[in-house]
Amino acid sequence: MDDESGGILYPKLPVGNDPSAIVACVEQVLGYAAVSGVHVLSVDLDTASEVGSSSFIEIARFKPDGS
């Protein structure tokens, strides 16, 4: 995609409540994105697996250049 087009991927990856598992998952996704030339703009977590009782918490926001 060039600068005039874009899209959103919103994968739901189960990681549980272990902070090290969350970090490992985010690092893995960032690695896949880098290889694919995709920019990750933010990372958020759902607080529960059930949509009706869940909220989301943004844990990281990146600039469009990936920093």
Task: Provide structural commentary.
This is Thiamine-binding protein domain-containing protein. By secondary structure, the protein is an alpha+beta fold. It has a domain at 19-61. It has one helix spanning 19-36, and strands at 42-46, 56-61. The longest helix is centred in the middle third of the chain and has 18 residues, at 19-36. The two termini are 19 Å apart.
What layout of secondary structure does this protein have?
Blueprint lengths: L18 H18 L5 E5 L9 E6 L6
Antiparallel strand pairs: 1-2
Protein name: Thiamine-binding protein domain-containing protein
Organism: Muricoccus vinaceus
Keywords:
single chain, alpha+beta, two-stranded antiparallel ribbon, 1 helix
Radius of gyration: 13 Å
Return the structural class: alpha+beta
SSE arrangement, N to C: HEE
What is the strand tally? 2
Biggest sheet, strands in spatial order? 1-2
In DSSP terms, counting alpha (H) and pi (I) runs of 4 or more, how many helices? Answer: 1
Task: Estimate the strand proportion.
Answer: 15-25%
Uncertain regions: pLDDT < 50 for 5+ in a row? none
Query: Termini separation (Å)?
Result: 19 Å
- Please give the share of residues in helix: 25-40%
Shape: globular
Mean pLDDT: 84
- Please describe the biggest sheet, giving its number of strands, its sense, and whether it closes into a barrel: 2 strands, antiparallel
Protein name: Thiamine-binding protein domain-containing protein
Organism: Muricoccus vinaceus
